[in-house]
Amino acid sequence: MYRTIHVPTFRAEYERYWAGPQIADGSFVILLQLCMAIGAAFQDNTFSIRSSACHWVWEANLWLTLACKRHKISITGMQILCLLHHANDITNMSSDLSWIGAGTLLHTATHIGLHKDPKFFPGMTVREAEIRRRLWATVLEIVLQASLDSGGTPPITLEDYDTDPPANVNDEQLVNHTDPALGTDPEVCTEMAAQLALLETWPARLAVAKAVNSVRSTASFDRTLAINSDLGTSLQSITQRLVKFHETGGITSFQLRYAEFTMHRFFLTLHLPLLPQALQNPLFHFSRKMSTDASTRLAAITYLTPESRAFLATPQATLSDWDFSRLFLCGSGPYRATQPQLILTLAVDLAQSLEKEPRSHYGAITPGMAEARSILQSWHELRRERLRAGDTNVKAFVSTACMLAHLSGLEAARWSKSEHDKMLREAAEDAAAECIEILQGMAGVNSSETGETGEAGLMLDTCQTLDLDDIGDFDFLGGGEWDDAMSSDLCYPVWAAQLT
């Protein structure tokens, strides 16, 4: 998706590595290991080589600590920093500190002049210039995504750089290329098409991050509408182009879904600050609708709707489709944090509809409510699969079980509060017991054994010491601290106090 590495150059280095591993350059070995760490998440549905991937990421961090300055502050060093950021998001190693790492990445890129267009550096070859432009485009994307993940203000503006977009060419065209007049037509499909499409929308997405995350930012409805219009225009422009490329086989479904995921995530982020008001005031209904629409769209993109999950079992599903689904099954960072945001949005909207809207004689559940309910159920199943893939977030699984039980109680609309609380407690206990069984199976112990040590033992301790009272007072769908929810995984104490 991001052309961080020039593939022909990498392949040549790869062949030299196998010809003489003992004399291979240490920086290339780190680069190779980071590529393998990222790819490890796509091997199977259980992230079976997670430990090796984490070890490779750890070695990359050690190399950055011990390597001399000339190795780190270089094009190869920048490539390692970019890949390390993605590997952290995959393996969940320091993914919660991505904004700090992105700041280091930006400062390093600026230090070696990536923010200045290569035309200002005489004597630079076409290939070198394009690699610098590609790296800068990747840095911009990482910095913006990290800002969204952490809730921090973007540390860069459009006035801080003058680097032109990369040329719309394939990697092979940069080998021995001497003509500075490279491809600029965005309607031509190349290996750069997906990254260039996202780069085209970068200014509109930057406006979202600044509006939402700036220290003195206020959730102005008029300002939100203006930004939404610009973002919608950008989305329409690149979607039509990328869909056409996908239909002709120019880009993979992974690239198309990743671009759509990135764009719709910003729509959700833009309207979430206004959702508390929108739930109470019809004047802000547009933000409520945009939040739920973006959440539903994100659910479809990330295989949380029944239709999208069923598609994976059909012969039409390609390896690229499975790879994208595994990104959210095994990955961390934005791939784990975005789904709780859309689930919280749909759950709160559904709960309020069940509580406040009049019931018809056809029943409480409308088609829209049924779709939201099915997405929540798919999310619960995905949390179970994530546990089997090595995730240790037990509270998320237990809390989701309680959320579904709470919604069932609202649908029934006939239970007393004591009966409702009892049902929630039973749902939490059943979910916690299931977590223990899953984690014990992963640790290779019988359900009667305790006192395990090591990583598996720590996972068991997490389950066995789970205090259900920590989950809250079962007033689940009453509200949320949306600033915290923007950068944290699903945890009910975060959002059980505001939207009442």
TrEMBL record:
Q: Which terms does the UniProt entry file under GO BP?
A: DNA-templated transcription
Annotated organism of origin: Clonostachys chloroleuca
* Leader sequence residues: none
What name is this protein filed under?
Xylanolytic transcriptional activator regulatory domain-containing protein
Location of the Xylanolytic transcriptional activator regulatory domain: 98-172
State the UniProt keywords alphabetically: DNA-binding, Metal-binding, Nucleus, Transcription, Transcription regulation, Zinc
- GO CC, any one term: nucleus
Name the lineage.
Eukaryota, Fungi, Dikarya, Ascomycota, Pezizomycotina
Q: Which CDD domains match?
A: fungal_TF_MHR
Work out whether the entry's keyword set contains Transcription: yes
What GO molecular functions are on record for this protein? DNA-binding transcription activator activity, RNA polymerase II-specific; RNA polymerase II cis-regulatory region sequence-specific DNA binding; zinc ion binding
